[in-house]
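Data card: per-record layout.
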Amino acid sequence: MHPNNCELILDLATQVGQALQARGLLLATAESCTGGGVAQAITEIAGSTAWFDCGFITYSNASKTEMLDVSAALIAQLGSVSEEVAAAMATGALGNSNAHVALSTTGIAGPTGAVPGKPVGTICFGWARGDQIHTERLVFTGDRQSVRTQTVIHALQGLLRFIA
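The structure for this 164-residue chain is written out next.
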């Protein structure tokens, strides 16, 4: 990872921690394509136990269903890389944790896995708090590591906007 990206991620994770702590909120993450990268960034920050509850790494469709209560029918209908599944992952993380707010990532980091309408770099995000849910779908460019890094950065930036 580029050193500037490391610094940016740590800075964002610090800001996330300050924002969550100021609001008395606990965070849970539900990650697929990032493989725990968001949770790792968050737990780099000393004292994160005060605002981070847990992280789910649900790489397979079966784990999304079993751990996060994402409907298998939803995955079958829309694919795991969809805003609807991202929303269900974030909601499932809330329902299966002590958290007040959750974020999710699901996507195609590459170099393989592209399907019609979903090129490599397609990432869906979800942020949930109570019954408030926000999703986004973006397409990043670059190699696998670059896509995953951009995803972690955007997930943290999106969380800051979501809880602001």
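Known properties of this structure: The CA atoms of residues 40 and 130 lie 24 Å apart. Residues 3-23 form the longest helix (21 residues).

See the next section for split statistics.
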